[in-house]
Amino acid sequence: MFSASQSSKAQFLDKARQAREERRELKERERAAIQIQALIRRFLCQCRLQREIRREVEDFFGSNESGSSKRSALSVFRIARKLLFVFNHKEDKERFEKLCRCILNSMDAENEPKVWYVSLALSKDLTLLWIKQIKDILWFCCEFLKQLKPDILQDSRLVNLHLTMLVTFTDTSTWKILRGKGETLRPAMNHICANIMGHLNQKGFYSVLQILLTNGLARSRPSLSKGSLTAVFSLALRPVVAAQFSDNLLRSFLIHIMSVPAIMTHLATLTPERLAVIESHDLFRKFILYLSREAQCRDVCVCLEGSHTLCLLGNLVYLGSLNDNVLEEETAHFVGVLIHMLSYCQKYVSQKKSNLTHWHPVLGWFSQTVDYGLNESMPLLTKQLQHLWGVHMIRILFSDVLSKKLLENQEIAQLPAQPASPQNSLPMKNLFKRAFQKSASVRNILKPVGGKRVDSAEVQKVCSICVLYQTTLTTLTQIRLQILTGLTYLDDLLPKLWAFICELGPQGGLKLFLECLNNDTEESKRLLAMLMLFCDCSRHLIT
Fold it and tell me: Cross-referenced PROSITE patterns, in alphabetical order (predicted)?
């Protein structure tokens, strides 16, 4: 009796539980159905709204192209807000191009303040909204620039369009609203431009310019036109000047702009006026002083890695060849910077092929990843580097050595002429002297003199320069013969360098260098670098 009642109770509870679960599942299905319907309705509503907005934008630009009357800045602002609300890079590419052209046309209008797009910046109600809108528009221009290929004709036109937008709204010099009485507004407008440039920098403005410059210049023939290159370099320089050459902006400029292969050569060829701007801002000196701090130089090299560090080095050398006064005044810093950068590259130069090395046209086998996209620009990079061992720069760097006058009070005995024969036409014992006899003033230069302190400023400077060229020889392995040929081109460099070596120490001669071999110090290595450079160059002449 009790068991029957208990079983019926259990069945009742089971049915009640099942009924509850069914009701809960039903409610969940209803809730899910409602949510799905809501999402679908929202999606359809969004699609409908986007179609309506895009149709409105098309109608606006269509009537603007067909009509003769110019659109007011406020109407352009409103249609731009709608386009940016539904903006999609793929779908709205052409609409965005029309918007940019419409804005630029409004800025070209004569004596029509209501048409000028920038006039909205003077409206109290719209200033903040206008600034946000122009920031968004300019960043979309940057994103398009990253994707464009300057070597394609259609893309090159779009590159010019987006660059014109950036040039126009990051500087007030072309704003007609500031002419005449509007000149009083210039400080406020300059502040807005600085705000816009700061926003772009935070988003990655310099990375965009680097990609564009690399796409257009890292090739045997540049695909960027003179106007485009001028615009890009002006845009790159504006934030640096606006920030009064702060360390952060100089760092970005060095990493992203100065590391573009042979950019200084392209500037000199296509738009030499930009080099005059570099000189007017004394940028070369600022670069050298910034990189002369070892921690900052190491940071830049680590960010760039070997291939791009070499590109930066080439551009700095080329700039140095154009700025004699700065090079003479900052020789110590210039030499120190190049030594640091070459030493960084040298750490990854390998003597032989392995699974961890890659071939580099200048460095040889290299243990860091090599950017093979830079291979086309390697001839231009090599030409830039050649200035380092060119006559002009050697005369500046070795000025202390070359300014010396060799002693001529003793005549070197003339060797008796020997009959020419295949076995004894050029005796090896006389080859070394013949190399020196190219100079008109080779007298008494092999005699140890001594008396010059090795810790003097003059000796330390010459040691640093010899360390630089010795590091260059051991790092740029694939152009070693070019370097040696350049160093031995001047007839009087080696004789005068040897005369300088003979004056070192209290007694002169090789005794000082024999002592250096027993001392494993940095100072000893610097002194030995002088002798090693002399020996390498002499061997190159003899062989």
Answer: IQ
Q: Kindly state the average pLDDT of the residues 5-20.
A: 80
**Is the pLDDT score of 166 beyond 90?**
yes
- Residue 424 has a pLDDT of 43
Tell me: pLDDT of 446 over 90: no
Taking each helix axis as running N to C, give the angle between helix 493-502 and helix 428-436, from 0 to 180 degrees, rounded to the nearest 10. Answer: 100
State the Cα–Cα distance between residues 200 and 1, nearest whole angstrom: 86
The structure tokens listed for 465 are 């320069």
Looking at residue 349, the DSSP 8-state letter turns out to be E
Q: Is 366 helix (H, G, I), strand (E, B) or coil?
A: strand
H-state helical runs in 271-368: 273-280, 283-291, 294-322, 324-329, 331-346
- The distance from CA 460 to its chain's CA centroid, rounded to whole angstroms, is 31
Question: What does the mean pLDDT of the chain come to?
Answer: 85
Dist CA 284 CA 391 (whole Å): 21
CA distances from 468 to 187, 301, 342, 515 (A): 47, 17, 8, 22
Report the C-alpha gap between 377 and 391 in whole angstroms: 24
Residue 316, Cβ neighbours under 10 Å: how many? Answer: 23
Task: Give me the residue spans of the domains in the chain.
Answer: 398-404+442-542
Query: Per this entry, what is the length of the chain?
Result: 543
- Would you state the pLDDT for residue 81? 94
How far is CA 49 from each of CA 53, 56, 61, rounded to the nearest angstrom?
A: 6, 10, 18
* Axis-axis angle for helices 522-542, 457-475 (nearest 10): 60
pLDDT given for residue 68 in this prediction: 53
Q: Tokens 């409103």 identify what position?
A: 78
Smallest CA-to-CA distance from 347 within 392, 391, 290, 306 is with 306
> Among 106-115, 395-404, 505-514, whose mean pLDDT is lowest?
505-514
Q: Edge-to-edge strand order for the sheet containing 358-360?
A: 349-350, 364-366, 358-360
Residue type, 38: A
pLDDT score for 221: 85
Token digits of residue 517: 């071999």
